[in-house]
Design goal:
Structural class: alpha/beta
Largest sheet: 6 strands, parallel
Helix content: 40-55%
Oligomer: single chain
Order of helices and strands: EHEHEHEHEHEEHEHEHHHHHH
Number of domains: 2
Strand order of the largest sheet: 3-2-1-4-5-6
Shape: globular
Number of helices: 13
Length: 291
């Protein structure tokens, strides 16, 4: 029988990731801050725990996919937190995007309990989560990764062992910084083209045939052209990841001028938003300026 997996965080990414674990035959126990999000998984065979601590006491692997560092701290160390109940020999896999420092602190707390720990943030969007084609960026011990390999294989197509704990988060913050800058660059270019009297579609046609083409732009360009931003990766989370990247840069004494300028643009759009849009909504910055 396959090991039991616990899953905390059933949002846009977590829910399809958990479903793929069920499809792969793993006994699954889930918890979410709003239990209603777990109903469909329970109907498909998952068990619902009342608290993170109750869940952690029953599992061989615990996955957490929550929104930000405070949420990770709450589900691990808060009232009824999971960390206190994890059994020696189990493995905690955190696929949230957090600071490298928090990943290292979590690793140290796990070592004290004889628990393995991997920081394993993901990229691939909701479509990758649904198809089981995520890419994992992993920090931690190689033997812990090998132990967890079947769990990762149920959810992703590639996983990279990048070094010790914290390395996965460092690379994830850098990756998201690239994505944020690419999408803002497209939004700026579209603003320039359309304000100069050329249809945005003409720019996209040329872009697709040029060295400037990027896979993320294939996905985001239709949203920008329609000015519609259903959340695949919410702007509020990209804004958080950019902030974490800039905080890491300050710690390391690295100046990131393009990132700092882009963060200001994302901040302006986030602060003005009355909905919860995808991060491609950074294009609203130029729409607002035009109006």
């Amino acid at each position: 029988m396959k090991p039991t997996v616990g899953f905390i965080g059933l949002g846009l990414m977590g829910h399809p990731m958990a479903r793929n674990l069920l499809k792969a035959g793993f006994p699954l126990i889930v918890w979410n801050r709003t239990p209603e999000r777990a109903e469909r998984l329970v109907q498909e065979g998952a068990k619902l725990a009342a608290t993170p601590r109750e869940l952690a006491a029953q599992v061989d692997f615990l996955m957490t996919v929550v929104s930000d560092p405070p949420a990770v701290e709450k589900v691990l160390w808060g009232a009824d937190g999971a960390l206190a109940a994890l059994r020696s020999g189990s493995v905690l896999i955190d696929s949230s995007t957090i600071s490298p420092d928090l990943a290292r602190r979590t690793a140290a707390a796990c070592r004290e309990k004889g628990v393995g720990y991997l920081d394993a943030p993901v990229t691939g969007g909701t479509w990758g989560a649904e198809k089981g084609e995520l890419v994992f960026m992993i920090g931690g011990q190689a033997e812990t990764l090998e132990k967890a390999r079947p769990v990762f294989e149920a959810m992703g197509k590639k996983f990279f062992h990048l070094g010790s704990n914290g390395a996965g988060q460092i690379v994830k913050l850098a990756m998201n910084l690239i994505l944020a800058l690419e999408v803002e660059a497209l939004a700026e270019a579209l603003a320039l083209v359309t304000h100069s009297g050329v249809q945005g579609e003409r720019l996209i046609e040329v872009l697709q045939a040029s060295m400037a083409r990027a896979a993320v732009l294939d996905v985001k360009a239709p949203l920008l052209l329609k000015n519609e931003y259903p959340p695949s990766f919410p702007l509020r989370l990209m804004h958080k990841d950019m902030r974490l990247a800039l905080e890491l840069a300050r710690q390391e004494g690295v100046t990131l001028p393009a990132a700092a300028a882009s963060y200001a643009t994302y901040s302006a759009v986030k602060d003005a938003a009355k909905d919860d849009p995808d991060y491609a909504a950074v294009a609203r910055y130029w729409t607002a300026k035009q109006s």
